[in-house]
Design goal:
The chain is mainly beta. It contains 3 helices and 30 strands.
Length: about 375
């Protein structure tokens, strides 16, 4: 009896073990995470982020969309160099990936540096056109115009971002970044995108012909003599004579022609002045006029000093610097010069020599 009971117990234990072995094993839950916690892309490049081990839909965001943006599908695109954190939110929990965006180096394709309309690039007469497109999208693209003989950069322009295959262009008039005229010589354009530099063929900048400028001013003087210009007088007196001098008023390297109608009243005389500028083989009258007693060429810089007022008995004259800006006369602040300092002033700033309009030798200094 006892032996049967033992057999039955052993059989039941065996059956129980078999049943337990047949039950399914419960697997431990997999951890939800992003496929990347850090990523590096170049500007305009893309990388795909995924949330692993979940079927729930993620919402995506970027800490700085100006650096890297992300789509609703988790596709990250580099926008500008820098770092941004991409966040995927699933069931209220955030998962992040730090994305570093690096700039892309690119070659400037179809880089050209040519005179607008063809022909010779002449200072004051024509402009040059710079045109290029990049082989890859790049940020902070720097374009420099460089003097060939010295390697000196005379003009700079920066594009915050250039898209691959898109053409970018601008014109250059032969002045530096500060607006001053550069030397007549050979220049090249250098485009730097990332660490890659592309250099154009050289282009020669030539000076405007001095003969053509002189010829234009000779015509102006003839027209003044013929009465084709009006010189307003403050006091209504008649013109005694017309005189002129030349000075670089706007810093472009080409001297302007200053013509004065000389009015005389009692023992005093003054000039009502009009300024003419030769540019692109034409001459134009500068907007505005000024009445002066005398003029002085500054020791440095552009324009001329004009004595504009004299108070009898005080021994003091008012002086202003006259230049040309944006196509119009620009009159500087007034300062006083007394007899006691006039000698020092005239020693530093040369008094203008006026030439009567029938005498063309006053144009001999045109360059």
């Amino acid at each position: 009896m006892k032996k049967n009971a033992k057999k039955q117990f052993s059989l039941l234990a065996l059956l129980l073990m078999l049943c337990l072995m047949m039950l399914p094993v419960q697997a431990s839950a997999a951890t939800v995470k992003l496929n990347k916690t850090t990523a590096t892309v170049k500007v305009a490049e893309k990388v795909k982020l995924k949330v692993k081990n979940t079927t729930a839909t993620a919402s995506w965001s970027s800490s700085d969309k100006s650096i890297a943006k992300v789509s609703s599908k988790g596709v990250v695109t580099g926008v500008m160099p820098g770092k941004a954190v991409i966040t995927a939110t699933v069931d209220g929990k955030a998962y992040t990936c730090e994305v570093t965006v690096k700039n892309a180096s690119a070659k400037a394709e179809s880089l050209t540096f040519k005179t607008v309309g063809g022909g010779t690039f002449v200072l004051g007469e024509s402009k040059a056109k710079i045109s290029f497109k990049l082989s890859a999208t790049s940020a902070n693209v720097k374009v420099s115009i460089v003097k060939v003989s010295t390697g000196t950069t005379v003009y700079k322009k920066t594009y915050s971002k250039c898209t691959a295959g898109k053409t970018y262009s601008f014109t250059w008039d032969g002045t530096n970044t500060s607006g001053k005229t550069v030397a007549a010589t050979d220049y090249v354009v250098v485009v730097k995108a990332g660490s890659t530099k592309t250099t154009s063929a050289s282009l020669t900048l030539k000076k405007q012909s001095s003969t053509s400028v002189r010829s234009l001013y000779e015509t102006v003087l003839k027209n003044v003599k013929a009465g084709k210009y009006t010189f307003p007088s403050l006091y209504g007196s008649s013109v005694e004579e017309y005189d002129y001098f030349t000075a670089d008023m706007d810093g472009d390297g080409v001297k302007e022609l200053i013509v004065g109608a000389k009015f005389v009243s009692d023992v005093f005389y003054w000039y009502d002045c009009i300024v003419f500028d030769a540019e692109s083989n034409t001459v134009k009258q500068i907007s505005g006029d000024i009445c002066i007693l005398s003029a002085f060429l500054p020791a440095s810089g552009n324009g001329f000093y004009a004595s504009t007022d004299f108070s009898r008995g005080t021994g003091v004259t008012s002086v202003q610097l006259v230049t040309v800006k944006s196509g119009a006369l620009a009159i500087g602040s007034t300062f006083s010069v007394s007899y006691s300092v006039m000698t020092s002033f005239t020693n530093t700033n040369k008094a203008v020599t006026w030439t009567e309009i029938s005498d063309l030798t006053g144009l001999d200094n045109i360059q």
